[in-house]
Amino acid sequence: MSNKICAGGGHENPDAVDGNAEELIFPQEFRRGPNCEVLLTSEVHLLLEHRHEKALQKDEIEELSEVQQKCLDYVRRMSKFKNRESIKNARSVFSACPFHPFEIAQLVNLCPESAEEAKALIPSLEGRIGDAELEAMLNEMHKRRSYQ
């Protein structure tokens, strides 16, 4: 059985049912092709807020369902970047790196303070990038976050 790199950068194993994020192996549901992107929590927040505001303006809904409200509350609470420009800036810090989209999303969503913390939270980074280089990128991401 041979593994190949799929469009998203992870390994595709047609027999695999479970994924393994540490090895960047994801179930089929997460491999939808080259035009799919891993969204940041902050991007989901903007999308849900926009959709909710449009629906309210059109009087399409009076109230969100319990699940929708919980989801919106969660992304509001967990969003690290509050506008499109800051999200774009955060993504750009990692754009020249050979990171998997999942790793970039995790770095931006979690905003680790150090390379050590980043590698503890995202084990697939271990051995792929030096601590000094990762520290510099994390510092740059935090600078961009502070200017929003």
Account of the 3D structure:
- With 148 residues, the protein is mostly helical.
- Helix content is 49%, strand content 3%.
- It has six helices and two strands.
- It has helices at 41-57, 66-78, 84-93, 101-110, 115-121, 131-146, and strands at 4-5, 11-12.
- Strands 1-2 form a two-stranded antiparallel sheet.
- Helix 1 (41-57) packs across helix 2 (66-78) and helix 3 runs antiparallel to helix 6 (131-146).
- It is globular.
- The N and C termini lie far apart (48 Å).
- Residues 1-14 have low confidence and may be disordered.
- One of its GO terms (cellular component) is nucleus.
- One of its GO terms (molecular function) is nucleotide binding.
Assembly context of the chains: single chain
Number of strands: 2
Any idea what the shape is?
globular
Percent range for helical residues? 40-55%
What do the pLDDT scores average to? 81
Class from secondary-structure proportions:
mainly alpha
Strand content range? under 5%
Gyration radius from CA atoms, angstroms: 17 Å
The helix/strand order is EEHHHHHH
What is the strand arrangement across the widest sheet? 1-2
Q: How many H/I helices?
A: 6
Q: Outline the biggest β-sheet.
A: 2 strands, antiparallel
Distance between the termini: 48 Å
Unreliable runs: 1-14
